[in-house]
Amino acid sequence: SVRHWGKDEVEYVKAPEIPVLYANNAQIAFNNFDVSLVLGEIMEAADKLRVAPKVKVTISLPFALELRDLLVRNIAVFEDKFGPIHTPGKELIIEDAQAS
What we know:
By secondary structure, this protein is an alpha+beta fold. The protein has one helix at residues 61-82, and strands at residues 25-30, 34-45, 49-60, 98-99. The chain has a four-stranded mixed beta sheet. Strand 2 (34-45) and strand 3 (49-60) form a beta hairpin. The longest helix has 22 residues, at 61-82. The protein is extended, with a radius of gyration of 17 Å.
């Protein structure tokens, strides 16, 4: 079973500097062990969608499940406090998950 650590049981070590990036687009690829996310920023959404890739993050499949659950829980808390999050709609979905 997976141990869930409480806030008081985790110590974050100070890093020199963490890059701060903005993303509103993601490309996703799976293999048998990992999930890779290429996060990017939509630059233009006229007749052709232009996306500028910003960073690639690769995580293990077990961590991907934990991250999914963490996002679901925290989005629910946010929406309970501030109301529903409205998405721009399916017109910005480029492609679904792909296996690599």
